[in-house]
Design brief:
Distance between the termini: 53 Å
Number of helices: 4
Protein name: Bulb-type lectin domain-containing protein
Strand order of the largest sheet: 8-1-11-12-13
Helix content: under 10%
Number of strands: 25
Number of domains: 2
Order of helices and strands: EEHEEHEEHEEHEEEEEEEEEEEEEEEEE
Strand content: 35-45%
Structural class: mainly beta
Largest sheet: 5 strands, mixed
InterPro entries: Bulb-type_lectin_dom (IPR001480), Bulb-type_lectin_dom_sf (IPR036426)
Shape: globular
Radius of gyration: 20 Å
């Protein structure tokens, strides 16, 4: 495979749609002059890649019109690249023209310049989505539960040890989200794995930068372990009641210091509180 080229393989039974941008803060209006700033009633301006991610996490705005009579789903599919089931497609390359029709090849090269790019990936039914940064030499594969790295030099061989990003299930408008809100004793959250409150409004995310963060619905951080850059690899709800972040070498870098207090499970609650409970369901 050529350098500074990203391919995407689809191992699902439905199409996936991929929006490629320089970063999550990329503002459409800076370059997409014929689109400008989009607006959704009840949400506000849709002007950056990170706004796409906020909307994709709820069905509330999916069917709303955003511009020129387009619904959000129609808009997203219109500015994204479609990869059909079983297909492998080049979604980014510094040596070819921009896959997004709004940018000229020269403009594309000037913006990206061979650096990391942000991928926003959505299934055709809009029930699953994920957004992450990727090196411009890496390629990815959509599978049932996540998007994983392809083994270097291949396009269809899964290599999750090198990179994986779990799908985020779309949150229904009326709050009957079925995501997992509980980490039991001896349970582990790895990179980019999460707990989500039952009402879908709060998320505990073990980030790939090693930081453990609670986010609200609009992706605003409410609390963090402040362990980014320290090599955190996983969060463990230990059977001794202690909640611990470990590095790859199993050395701890953060702990709740609740060992010996009878903690049995960790719950991301619908009120935004993250609570360790004992077997009798009493908080510690």
């Amino acid at each position: 495979m050529s350098r500074n080229t990203v391919h995407f393989a689809n191992h699902l039974s439905q199409d996936v749609h991929i929006f490629v941008s320089p970063n999550k803060d990329w503002v459409f209006a800076d370059f997409l002059v014929d689109v400008g700033t989009l607006f959704i009633d009840g949400y506000g301006a849709v002007k950056a890649t990170k706004d796409l991610w906020k909307i994709l996490r709820t069905m509330k705005f999916i069917s709303d019109q955003v511009s020129a009579g387009l619904t959000f789903t129609e808009f997203f599919k219109g500015v994204s690249l479609k990869v059909k089931p079983g297909q492998v497609r080049k979604i980014y390359s510094t040596s070819t023209s921009n896959p997004l029709k709004y940018l000229s090849p020269s403009g594309w090269a000037a913006i990206f310049n061979g650096k990391d790019v942000t991928l926003t990936v959505v299934t055709d039914d809009f029930q699953k989505s994920v957004q992450f940064n990727t090196n411009s030499d890496h390629s990815w594969i959509a599978i049932t539960d996540e998007v994983v790295r392809a083994k270097y030099g291949t396009l269809n061989q899964e290599y999750p040890k090198r990179g994986r990003h779990a799908w985020r299930q779309t949150i229904p408008e009326h709050g009957n989200y079925k995501g997992n809100d509980t980490l039991p004793a001896d349970g582990i959250l790895g990179w980019d794995q999460n707990l989500a409150s039952k009402n879908g409004l709060y998320e505990l995310l073990m980030q790939s930068d090693g930081n453990l963060v609670i986010y609200d619905f609009f992706r605003k951080p409410l609390w963090a372990s402040n362990t980014d850059g320290k090599g955190g690899n996983k969060l463990v709800m230990q059977s001794d009641g202690n909640l611990v972040i470990y590095k790859k070498d199993n050395k701890p870098i953060w702990a709740s210091n609740t060992d010996g207090k009878g903690g049995n499970k960790l719950v991301m609650q619908s009120d935004g509180n993250l609570v360790i409970y004992k077997k009798d369901n009493k908080p510690i």
